[in-house]
């Protein structure tokens, strides 16, 4: 049973909506700037990837907005966009045939910050009833399922920054088990003082105050990563069901792999990330020679970047020097569990148009660990297969293989047994 992507919704600092994000990506746009959601002057981190002009009240009903945190607002908006893009109405489907799975690493931190401040200022009576649900990682899944009447398999993954890819795989598994369609992806809104203070301990955040130099993965200037808010959700469908309703297939979910190599030790991730990539290729029935573009994780520290480069060289062999590598998050920041889902959305759009977007803020003469990182201008390439990589701060490694539908049809005379 083949799983395909028929819709995508994207809410990122460089653009609200998939096409706005794609246009900004092709233009090398960067949205990293001074943090404004709280007074960051007393904190080591001063820049981030914030959503400009995102007003949940314009996209989500008020009754949902007041009950939930910003990360759920982002997820709900992205879900709406994905369903519209897929031209799919869940309420017109058979009961229990569609579900949703989302990923989050931070949860409802901004909502929780307000409630904790109210508790200390005014006492327990200041804590509202919605705090009990708004902070929870599963809030986005729950609210999306309620809003759209999704009574099929629903869940949430808290697998750190690999979560976006893992959610897509989890959804594909549910389709193989009989679901007709799934919504899947990730959303994050980490910009609250307590939440960000919790991140300083791992010493991976950039302390650079110049936004254009704060996040430079795979370069000699790499000095940590910049966090971001945002999200991406996808409509995944059984290929036969999608064909039966005349859906426009964006990409085929071909394979996925995951491993674990230890918390806060990204420099040890080379072997685990390579194994995850090979597992994704094996599941898809493909090999390294089929990879046309790599969407790299790009954590942004010298040790972590060197480990990822080693993994890419390990998997691709001599081709690692010539296969285009995309780093779109260098212009948006890393949105934790949503980050890999956003990269997957970029990969789908790249496959559609045959273009690899340039990595914002990266100088043309920066060394890039022997990889062909696309910089400066977008590159037009014949693209059939994209490998998306992700690593979590807590040790997870994940790889997702996406194929252009024409490439899948040409290279698979029969449907692989795993799909």
From TrEMBL:
It comes from the Bacteria. PROSITE patterns: KS3_2. The keyword Membrane does not apply. Residues 1-404 form the Ketosynthase family 3 (KS3) domain. Keywords: Acyltransferase, Transferase. InterPro entries: Beta-ketoacyl_synthase, Ketoacyl_synth_C, Ketoacyl_synth_N, PKS_Beta-ketoAc_synthase_dom, Thiolase-like. Coiled coil: none annotated. SMART domains: PKS_KS. PANTHER family: POLYKETIDE BETA-KETOACYL SYNTHASE 2-RELATED, POLYKETIDE SYNTHASE-RELATED. Belongs to the thiolase-like superfamily. Beta-ketoacyl-ACP synthases family. This is Ketosynthase chain-length factor. It comes from Actinomadura graeca.
